[in-house]
């Protein structure tokens, strides 16, 4: 169903843009492609998007046949899943990210600092298999941020069947195995592949305190943006 304010062209590019070109739509698809299925999960991936607009975009994607909505019989909560048409957009969305990493200046990325999105991305890209087979608690501290966004905890339970990874903003009351102290800009640069962990430590912009089995292998378990490996084609 084409938008009433559409381009009025039969060209498939124009028709696809009418569906995908509305504000936030590609980012909602990004979250679905990353595995989010619940409304609150999607919100954590687009923290600056209002709940009302997210609901609207999900309804539009369902209308266009890109997602399905099913209500869980036990919890009553809806779950959103990509259809074949929605899943087929994966290479398109990934190509956009790769293009942005290659051709947009690093400084543009580092203007848009968001601790909620960064920690959510780190949580879902973390690699539990590179950690010891026990419960691990890692605290990230961003001293320059305001209270409420300064401290974050990642809890990885290797004893769980699915290697559960939880993200907390409230102290979980567990012994911390590793403290990671840095500033938000540095951590974002590391996540985006703009700065290496080794460089950040060498420049005293990243401090790691805790079990050596965690500090020595942080490059293995931390995980980076799926676009971090793209080589920049413009000056930083």
UniProtKB/TrEMBL annotation:
Keyword line: DNA-binding, Transcription, Transcription regulation
UniProt keyword rRNA processing present: no
InterPro entries in alphabetical order: ArsR-like_HTH, HTH_HxlR, SCP2_sterol-bd_dom_sf, WH-like_DNA-bd_sf, WH_DNA-bd_sf
Domain of life, source organism: Bacteria
Keyword Nucleus tagged: no
Coiled-coil region list: none
CDD domains: HTH_ARSR (cd00090)
Domain HTH hxlR-type: 11-108
PANTHER family according to UniProt: TRANSCRIPTIONAL REGULATOR, MARR FAMILY (PTHR33204), TRANSCRIPTIONAL REGULATORY PROTEIN (PTHR33204:SF18)
Protein name, UniProt field: Helix-turn-helix domain-containing protein
């Amino acid at each position: 169903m084409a938008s009433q304010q559409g381009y009025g062209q039969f060209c498939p590019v124009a028709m696809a843009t009418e569906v995908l070109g509305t504000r936030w739509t590609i980012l909602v698809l990004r979250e679905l492609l990353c595995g989010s299925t619940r409304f609150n999960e999607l919100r954590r991936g687009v923290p600056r998007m209002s709940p009302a607009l997210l609901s609207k975009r999900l309804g539009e994607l369902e209308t266009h046949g890109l997602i399905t909505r099913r209500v869980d019989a036990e919890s009553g909560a809806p779950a959103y899943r990509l259809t074949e048409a929605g899943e087929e957009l994966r290479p398109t969305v990934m190509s956009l990210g790769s293009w942005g990493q290659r051709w947009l200046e690093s400084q543009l990325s580092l203007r848009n600092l968001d601790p909620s999105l960064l920690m959510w991305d780190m949580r879902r890209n973390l690699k539990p298999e590179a950690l010891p087979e026990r419960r691990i608690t890692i605290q990230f501290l961003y001293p320059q941020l305001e209270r409420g966004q300064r401290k974050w905890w990642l809890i990885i339970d290797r004893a769980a069947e699915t290697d559960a990874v939880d993200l907390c903003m409230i102290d979980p009351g567990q012994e911390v195995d590793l403290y990671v102290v840095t500033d938000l800009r540095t951590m974002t640069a590391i996540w985006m592949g703009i700065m290496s962990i080794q460089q950040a430590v060498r420049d005293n912009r990243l401090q790691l305190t805790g079990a050596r089995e965690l500090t020595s292998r942080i490059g293995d378990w931390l995980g980076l943006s799926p676009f971090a490996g793209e080589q920049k084609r413009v000056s930083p």
